[in-house]
Amino acid sequence: MKVVLEILLIVLAYLLGSIPFGYLFTKKFTGMNIRELGSGNIGSTNVRRFAGAKFALFTQLCDMLKGLLPVAIVLVLQYMQCCTFDVYIIYMVAMTSILGHNFSIFLRFKGGKGVNTTLGASVLLSPVPVFLSVFIYFIIKKWSKYVSLGSISLALALSVSELIMHSATPLFYYLLICSVLILARHASNIVRLINKTEPRSIN
Hints:
Layout: H1 2-18, H2 21-30, H3 44-51, H4 53-79, H5 89-102, H6 115-122, H7 127-144, H8 147-166, H9 170-185, H10 187-195
Helix pairs in contact: 1-4, 1-5, 2-3, 2-4, 3-4, 4-5, 4-6, 5-6, 5-9, 7-8, 8-9
């Protein structure tokens, strides 16, 4: 029974993570296909460029929630002692929600860059590194005027701060994988930053 529940939670996390809110909001309220505009990304930054700040905020919140909710369900079930999960299940659930966003089954395994979903999936597990990395994101973004550089800095800060605070725990390795995924999804941005062709922030 426990194994079945664990599998169901992982599948639920992936399906929830796969919901492309940025694509859906932009398509529903503007008629535009966000995947054919700008960077083609379904995340809040690209949504803001073409659908405006309101829909970008909705996208950001929903992308965070779809990472947070599966993790919260596991924590609640553990707290209520409904089931004693394997110690790694919560990390698998969190990671699967992120992978759902990055490789959505509803978009033929295409997706976003996973920053907001990573923050949502990780905030209950490691709140201090999450808030610290968000703070660094805003500092770097304001200083450089590059959203992508802020996101890259966030990714690095997320795992490095956890390592400094708690050494090489399973939580650190989970966050390290999150960091690597974010950096990998920003590979084209990194190239453009090096070539000085990356577009600056619109706000």
